[in-house]
Amino acid sequence: MSAELVRELRSRAAELTAEEQRELGEYLLARAKDAGADPPRVRWRDLCGAVEYPLFGEDAQTYISRTRAESDARRERSLRGGA
């Protein structure tokens, strides 16, 4: 929309009664709210089957077990004063 059109609309709106201006304002706010509405949320179940198993070449349980063991090892080194 051009700046000229916005200026014209403002000028014409100034000619309206207070009630008409409120009505126009409510209309414009409702349209702006609808236009800026959040997109629908994606549900996790909609993603089911989106990628082939295993995604990163590792079974989920193997990944969990490995990362827990790595985390435990880091924690132990940290408690012993090593980095």
Number of helices: 3
Radius of gyration, in angstroms, nearest whole number: 29 Å
Q: Please state the average pLDDT score.
A: 88
Structural class: mainly alpha
Percentage of helical residues? 55-70%
Overall, the morphology is elongated
Strand tally:
0
Largest sheet: none
Question: Could you give the distance between the termini?
Answer: 60 Å
User: How many separate domains?
Assistant: 2
The sequence of SSEs as H and E is HHH
Q: What portion of the residues fall into strands of 2 or more residues?
A: under 5%
Low-confidence stretches: none
Secondary structure layout plus pairing:
Elements: H1 3-14, H2 18-35, H3 60-79
What does the model show?
With 83 residues, the chain is mainly alpha-helical. The chain folds into two domains: 33 residues; 36 residues. 60% of the residues lie in helices and 0% in strands. It is built from three helices and no strands. The longest helix is centred in the C-terminal third of the chain and has 20 residues. It starts with a helix and ends with a helix.
Features:
elongated, single chain, mainly alpha, 60% helix, 83 residues
Short structural summary:
This protein has 83 residues and is an all-alpha fold. The chain folds into 2 domains: 3-35; 44-79.
